[in-house]
Write a structure and sequence with these properties.
InterPro entries: MdtA-like_b-barrel, MdtA-like_BSH, MdtA-like_C, MdtA-like_HH, RND_pump_MFP. The protein is an alpha+beta fold. The protein contains four helices and 19 strands.
Length: 382
Amino acid sequence: MNTLKKIKILFVVLVLPQFYISCKKDAAPEAKPLEISVVKVLQQDVRLESEFTGQTFGQSDIEINPRVDGVIESLNFKEGSMVTKGQVLYTIDPLPLQAKMHEAEGDLAEVQARVAKTKSDYDMMVPLAKMNAVSQRELIAAKSAYNAATASLQAANANLTNSKIELGYSTIVAPISGLIGISKVRVGDYVRPGAASVLNTVSDLGDVRVRFTMSEQEYLRIFREISKKDSSLKGAGKAISLILSDGSVYPEQGKISFADRQIDPTTGAVTFEAAFANPDRLIRPGQYVKINVVTDVRKNALLIPQRSVIEMQGIYQVFVLGNDNKVEMKMIQVGSSYKDSYIVTDGLTANDKVAMGGTSLLKSGSVVTPKIKDWAPGKAEN
């Protein structure tokens, strides 16, 4: 055997086994099925809520207006504090009003003297007229003078009463118990009666009112639904939730008190008012809040998590777990949102299981290792 053949045989013996071993090492291992979270389609009654923007008011918000003109002499309260009904809030300089009352008292005394004189003259004329000592004309004149004096007396009494009332208005008291705001006037300011002359406002915060508007179309739909016999919306207006500006849910539930008598022709909306208890006085007048009102009830609705839905150009799809742990993509129709889920109107049944998704490796026809998860709308996965 020549040297060349020996080299070839040695190459085959040494190199080929190594090449075979290397090829075995480079062969890709068989891929394991993806582990995918899977949830069951829920079937339950769903109470759908609509959100409206509202503004808060006190149970009573009473504006304090002066009823006489004059200079503010004193402020007798702490701004932003609680006041009680009848508590003195402001005093207006009473001296001009006292002078007016004293003048009325003087006028009354003068009229009373005139009444006494004219009555005396008339009483003296009566027997003289019977004896024809005075003419009937003189008797009638005496009687007229007495009647005129009596009428003047009534006017003088009314004038004195009015001046006393005005003097009483120089002391302004709280009309209700509640929280008083910041004063719009200070000591020394001149005030006068009128709707534009507001000194302050007192609010009763035991309960609060929230006013919100609803479109005419929504109002008509809800009214027709509630009017049906055995409507599932009956009583929905007695369980209203309120969302504060920081996103927190107010702990007290409210109820609708009334709706306005008319639909606003400029906005096409009707105004509603809801009442909420306010034991901690957390809510103040003037806040803007969100009102959630149950406006629809879906019986035996099918629910799936929103994160399991793939949406593209208005087309909604989900991966449905089938036999042999194989997932298939299905097109579905979704309705309203409910918390963090969708109501499915077509494409799924209550027995289906859908993949939560969350990976781009999931394809239609993929075999997966399902991991069943418990879930409920609005709650984190367990």
